[in-house]
Amino acid sequence: MTTDDPFDLSGDDAIVLRLHVQPGAGRTAVVGRHGDALKVRVAAAPEGGRANAAVISLVATTLGVAEDQVSLTSGESSRSKRVKVSGVDVDEVRRLLSEASSSGGSSKIGNNRPGRNVRPPAH
After folding, report:
1. Whole-model pTM?
2. Count of alpha carbons within 13 angstroms of residue 36, beta-carbon side
3. Which residue segments constitute the domains of the chain, with CATH numbers given?
4. pLDDT digit string (tens) for 66-113?
5. Is 85 exposed, middle or buried (CB count within 10 Å of its CB: 0-12, 13-18, 19+)?
């Protein structure tokens, strides 16, 4: 079992994902690891909850779940956030996060800007 996952288990079908968020970035994407967390960039500014909403949308898109299955549990005004994701298969989450983290920071996975692909093609 992998011990350096950027998430903790929370019940049978839920995880709490540790994130390091860079708001106001040029593009919205999962870019790799930041210590024990997953580093993500969001184009939204950290004002009025827009960056938090963008984080929830990015996580939902990246993990293939509905936005209402993703909730911010801590870090509302911090770059270090925790989000709970319910209704997920832990092995599938590991696979998706591995793809995103191993891309060397050039991943477009989860890029949810209009007109862009949000998921890599199936192999």
Report:
1. 0.79
2. 8
3. 13-101 (3.30.1200.10)
4. 999 999 999 999 999 999 999 999 998 988 887 776 654 433 434 443
5. buried
